[in-house]
Amino acid sequence: MKSTKEPILKLLNSVYKYLVAAIFIFIPLYPKFPLFTLPFTYVAIRAEDFLIGVTLLVLFLKLIMERNFKFPKVTYPFFVYLGIGLLSSLSAILVTKNVNSPLVLLHYFRRLEYMSLFFIVYFAAKSMANKKYLLELAIYPVIGVLLYGLAQIYLGAPVISTMDSESSKGIALTLRPGVMLNSTFAGHYDLAIYLIMIMTFLASLSFSFKKNLPKILITLPFLSLLWLFMQAGSRIGLLGLSISICILTYYYKNLVLGVIYLGLIFSSVLTSPQYISRFMNLYNVVLDKFSQITIFKPVYATEEQRAIQNDTSTSIRFDVEWPRAMRSFYKNPLLGTGYSSISLATDNDYLRALGETGLLGLLSFLSLLIYIFKKLKKLALDNLGLNKVIAVSTLAIFVAFITSAVFIDVFESSKIAILFWSYLGLAFSTENVSKV
Q: Three-class SS of residue 37?
């Protein structure tokens, strides 16, 4: 039996390694073409869903054959959150009856799918060799993202977006003048968050070097990605990137390099028409708002004159999406009205959790995030070498991600959510390192 088991396990380990590698390469590079859509929704089933499904199956078979495996302690908060999510889904189907049953379950299993990447990568990164391998695979695909972004700008390469119901059908468009860049992602927000992840890894590598030459060499690809980042024009993304650099500066105790990176970022903003236009728009909104409020002469704006409506994204959040999430919370404060009940966009993951899964769902979600944050802080302090690079950069990515979640549904955006949980799995694997 032993002689039969060993070659099968060896084969499973090999297949598993390359399936995880395929996920790291496929997710950032393959545009969001739908394989098929489900009735009454523009949520699509895509190729990565099958890739992740096969990888989970191989992991399950591998763990059964190994038997000697141990789940990380964070597994419990994961199960609590997912358990409450399932309870909320059943409540929406059986009690409030305000959702399409297959659709609410699809949204639930989508979240389960994204979070499964934490465990997929955690078990794939047991050895230092595998960690190096996966870190390289996390960084190298950005070259393709950069080249495709250039092709969209200068060669009219197709744009595949999910920013609205029509384009989410997989229609190939071209980049119109004044429209923010998507590259291989479904929206400019997604591209910006992805670039934050990769630039944070690169910056962390440069912080870790003692000599100046490697620091300079790392800065060159950082600048190329920074240019691409500026084409995305995401204001919340800019905040997230700045926060991540500040965290790296703190943990590596290198104020000079941190100031250089921040200087490069804000100098790039001054040369970006997208950012200048969007910040001027926001400035005008704030200025108009204050001009309506005077001590001696109050001015009450009509609905059409409201300053907040001069900025479309702000207006949608404050006037439509966030109130809608709160109304769902009021209907069922404990368990919410179920996944999918407040449409696809809320542009605030915490209000989305409150509206869809109620107070219990939000508290379990926040508990999971707090646990992860505390653990990443410990790993960032305890690790050395490459493990420290992974732990510190993932902590910075984590803070940037949860900050972005105040204004973007980052945890529901498939590409960046999959990569986010993957990087967390890689970071948590640094706790117990095998030298195999």
A: strand
Question: b/e map of 292-311 (b: 16 or more CB within 10 Å)?
Answer: eeeeeeeeeeeeeebbbbeb
Query: Which residues, including other chains, have CB under 8 Å from residue 57's CB and lie 6 or more apart?
Result: none
Q: What angle do CA 145, 146, 151 make, to 5 degrees?
A: 95
CA angle 349, 351, 352 (to 5 degrees): 60
Tokens of 410: 């980052």
Contact assessment for residue 354 and residue 333, using Cβ atoms and an 8 Å cutoff: no
> Which H helix or E strand runs over 371?
helix 349-382
Please state the φ and ψ torsions of residue 173, each to the nearest 5 degrees.
Answer: -110, 180
The distance of Cα 81 from the centroid of its chain, to the nearest Å, equals 18
Which tens digits make up the pLDDT trace of 248-304? 999 999 999 999 999 999 998 887 766 776 666 665 655 665 555 544 445 444 444
As beta bridge partners, residue 45 has: 36
* Residues 139-149: b if buried by 16+ CB within 10 A, e if exposed: bebbeebbebb
pLDDT digits (tens, 9 = 90+) for 159-212: 877 765 555 555 667 777 767 888 889 888 899 999 999 999 999 999 999 888
The DSSP letter of residue 431 is S
Beta carbons of 396 and 204 less than 8 angstroms apart: yes
For residue 74, give the nearest of 428, 397, 434 by alpha carbon: 428
Interacting residues of 52 by C-beta distance below 8 A, sequence separation 6+:
23, 113, 116, 117, 120, 418
Residues of the chain with pLDDT under 50: 1, 294-297, 299-308, 434-436
